[in-house]
Inverse folding.
């Protein structure tokens, strides 16, 4: 589901009117639209992120902007969501997961395998999955990788696959050479994933709160550091839907601070933040 937030001006220095009732409305609206459960202490974050959008649209108070959303287009609702989602990611984040994925792929060598990265952010996670597939199978190997996110801005970055060079500083030289192109001229100091790696991933916008999940069953789902933004009823609803769209014995990779052992009827913990789907 960006890490460094701008300095937030004190309430007295704010140029856009923002009341406690405005904040509660934002909390209610983002929960209804995206399932995000904003902590009551996030007033400054909400002001910092949304006020930029209000200035772009010419609003001087949150109340009138929030009122306008009742009749707003889906595009404006998407901007609202984009402002309030958090995107913290990196290549090979929580690296212990990828050898486990490689082991699973080896057991299925030659068999069609479907993987879903359900919070693609700016692309580092799905590209890491693709590199793991290529390293393990010597290519795509019958694997389909779908990558989705609710934030259209980060998806655009992901689909482009271009990053600052420091983003890949933790990767070894052979992997860099195999999967990335170095920028030159005006792109000096940047890298781009090679076309063959980009071609392994299908990117799309998707809201985990969507009423309909029309998708073929997956063998593996990555849903890491996403559920922490949802309340427990929303977590349960999403886990039920993930269970329904996974094959028996499928793998669910979650984040280091997420624990779903109370949902043993759906998933059983079999490794460090690794769950297997329960049931036939």
């Amino acid at each position: 589901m960006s890490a460094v937030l701008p300095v937030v001006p004190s309430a007295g220095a704010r140029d856009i009117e923002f009341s406690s009732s405005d904040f509660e409305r934002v909390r209610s609206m983002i929960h209804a639209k995206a399932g995000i459960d904003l902590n009551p202490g996030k007033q400054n974050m909400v002001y910092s992120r949304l006020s930029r959008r209000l200035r772009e649209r010419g609003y001087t108070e949150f109340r009138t902007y929030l009122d306008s959303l009742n009749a707003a287009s889906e595009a404006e609702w998407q901007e609202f969501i984009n402002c309030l989602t958090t995107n913290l990611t990196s290549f090979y984040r929580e690296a212990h997961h990828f050898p486990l994925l490689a082991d699973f792929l080896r057991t299925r060598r030659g068999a069609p395998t479907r993987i879903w990265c359900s919070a693609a952010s700016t692309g580092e996670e799905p590209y890491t999955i693709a590199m793991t597939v290529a390293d393990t199978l010597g290519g795509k190997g019958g694997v389909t990788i779908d990558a989705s996110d609710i934030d259209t801005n980060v998806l655009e970055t992901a689909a482009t696959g271009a990053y600052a060079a420091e983003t890949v500083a933790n990767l070894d030289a052979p992997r860099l050479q195999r999967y990335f192109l170095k920028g030159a001229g005006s792109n000096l100091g940047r890298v781009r994933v090679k076309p063959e790696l980009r071609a392994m991933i299908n990117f799309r916008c998707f809201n985990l709160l969507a009423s309909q999940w029309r998708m073929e069953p997956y063998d593996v789902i990555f849903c890491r550091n996403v559920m922490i933004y949802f309340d427990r009823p929303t977590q349960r609803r999403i886990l039920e839907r993930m269970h329904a769209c996974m094959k028996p014995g499928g793998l669910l990779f979650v984040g280091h601070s997420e624990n779903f052992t109370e949902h043993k009827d759906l998933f059983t913990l079999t490794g460090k933040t690794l769950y297997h789907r329960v049931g036939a």
The mean pLDDT is 90. The chain has ten helices and ten strands. The two ends are 30 Å apart (CA to CA).
